[in-house]
Hints:
Blueprint: H1 2-21, H2 28-41, E1 51-58, H3 64-74, H4 95-100, E2 107-115, E3 118-126, H5 134-143, E4 146-152, H6 159-170, E5 175-180, H7 189-199, E6 204-206, E7 208-211, E8 219-222, E9 227-231, E10 239-242, H8 249-266, H9 268-276, H10 282-294, E11 299-303, H11 312-322, E12 332-335, E13 343-346, E14 355-364, E15 368-377, E16 379-381, E17 385-388, E18 393-396, E19 399-404, E20 407-411, E21 413-415, E22 419-423, E23 433-435, E24 453-459, H12 464-478, E25 483-486, E26 493-497, H13 500-512, E27 518-520, E28 524-525, E29 528-531, E30 535-543, E31 550-560, E32 567-571, H14 583-594, E33 603-604, E34 607-615, H15 623-638, E35 643-656, H16 661-669, E36 674-681, E37 684-692, H17 699-706, E38 712-722, H18 725-736
Parallel strand pairs: 1-3, 1-4, 4-5, 5-11, 6-11, 29-33, 32-34
Antiparallel strand pairs: 2-3, 7-8, 8-9, 9-10, 12-13, 14-15, 14-23, 15-22, 16-21, 17-18, 17-23, 19-20, 19-22, 24-26, 24-27, 24-28, 25-26, 29-35, 30-31, 31-34, 35-37, 35-38, 36-37
Helix pairs in contact: 1-2, 8-9, 8-10, 14-15
Amino acid sequence: xxxxQFVHYINDIVAGFILYExxxxxxxxxxxxxxxxxxxxxxxxxxxxxxxxxxxxAHIDAGKxxxxxxxxxxxxxxxxxxxxxxxxxxxxxxxxxxxxxxxIASAATTVNWENHGQDYRINLIDxxxxxxxxxxxxxxxxxxxxxxxxFCAKGGVEPQSETVWHQANKYxxxxxxxxxxxxxxxxNFHNVLDMMRARLxxxxxxxxxxxxxxDSFRGIIDVIERRAYYYDNDDITKFTVDRVxxxxxxxxxxxxxxxxxxxxxxxxxxxxxxxxxxxISVEEIKSGLRKATIALKCNPVFCxxxxxxxxxxxxxxxITDYLPSPVDVEHxxxxxxxxxxxxxxxxxxxxxxxxxxxxxxxSDPYVGKLTYVRIYxxxxxxxxxVYNSSKDKKERIARILQMHAAHREEIEESYSGEIVAVVGLxxxxxxxTLCDExxxxxxxxIDFPEPVIRVAIEPRTQxxxxxxxxxxxxxxEEDPTFKTYTDSETGQTIIAxxxxxxxxxxxxxxxxxxxxxxxxxxxxxSYKETIRKSAxxxxxxxxxxxxxxxxxxxxxxxxxxxxxxxxxFVSEIVGGVIPKELIEPVxxxxxxxxxxxxxxxxxxxxxxxxxxxxxxxxxxSNEMAFxxxxxxxxxxxxxxxxxxxxxxxxxxxxxxxxxxxxxxMSSITGRRGNILGSELRNGVMIVEATAPLSELFxxxxxxxxxxxxxxxxxxxxxxxxxxxxxxxxKLQKNKKQ
Length: 737
């Protein structure tokens, strides 16, 4: 008996090793058998193959939060259905979210779901859909293993649908799709599939088909299992299983064949059976389709209506069936802290050295600063110390929290593949790497777009000045796309963000959370300055005032860079013409001076400064003198480089009834807009255009007026472009005044 137990034990170890080394080569049935013993032996409750880190992403009003709320309910996390329109959605915990019915900040939670007789842990993040808060989607996708893209059955692929889809492409995030709101008027399942294929270049493969649409929607067909699910309107947790309706058998078989062909391309076993004309089991189809999904070769498509509680259980099965676990995706890679040319890999394993990425900061009124961390390798223990390789600082983990939206549960230890919130990190910011001090690694940080809109803000009382500045610093730490600074010329405090709604929420949070009453000015566009051609110039700073003097002399060359490159500094100093310790101050002086360009005082971008010559004084030269000289050289040289102004250009999509199309087009062209095209979609006209941000302030009111309240629009940042000469002259004139 003992000998046989030993044999089984060895077999389990070998099978587990094979599974780990060949992470894509297992199916859902063998997954359970191989890893049951491993789950018991490991200190963690859920073995890595049974963990899913996913996000819910979509265009605004597609039903992301409602879908998340139904997931919470059907997994037993909540006992009551939360509704966005009632303001009691668990995942929308901010007051501003509850009042406006939109998601502003991403919310994380953890749920458990049983599928194929196996319990799974799903770490879920609900993300915003409004363009002003796209940073929340960006940083979440950076640390997630998979995603559920939610589409409205009527609207289909909308502007933000494309944006979040491309963000997921950027980070190679496997995703499945959920076509929501199948019960509303205008719902069209196949139209959404066509839009996904055309606009997103997605290999969208339906694993479910709706039985009816709009008012006639009454159930869902599982294409792989050839089953029809009819839902009980009286008991939302129940459904009946029946045969596929006769009039849909051909369509089901056509879709099933497409799924088998996709599975065969990624699974040799399925391919052999397919070409051999053998029967392919449900488990084999799912296994091959899972591999194809993880390899980004297809996107399984589900359907239902979250609000009416239809399709959520099957969607949860799909999350566990097709989306990857932490061991199904590539191991995280970084580079040596001291030499970026040396790459380092960290395996997703509890026995590896600890490595994690801080991807979100939250100021909590009860526990202080909360840092959300994705643990890629090793374990994290409460009370331990970690090394912040981005800041070269040591930090202490005071507490580890498992988050459930605004609620939290304290835990002693967390493992690789998990997402947790940490209390006690004072210096850590978004994008910082946390790791083991003895085996440091530096992961790629997260890139965030620059703000495109700004306003001046001032407290209503003198006593509130310091309180307001403290609050703004905390808010800027939370949100990397929100900036606050003091205008060097006017002395005003400026806040900058991604749109009017973004700044409106910031001001509202100042009042409610931080008890700061403030007045804000009119929105202003964040213009930029740049250069057309290269030129050389110099800066010489000489100051003699009795005692020790100041002497700094530099010669620089400024060269234009491609759009979006920012600022680069290069030193061509040889022979010690300028000592090494005085070169970096020149860089600092140029960088600071570039924040106030020579045309209208806006930040100068997309240029390279080359330090190629200069001179020093053996007594009077110091860092401050060369910093000033660098600033003077920038101002002198930029005037010779044919500088010009840039303004943010926005992508605009207007939805309006056909009879108002002409007025809408006129209103856009009258705002210096460029019409890209229009199409009839689900009974309404969709107008796509680009227009300068400066011309779009107040456009929502104008659109409501010309369409009698029936039109709406969305916009997102596209790029910076040159400001027309007449507008540039006005801006320069205003600056001089």
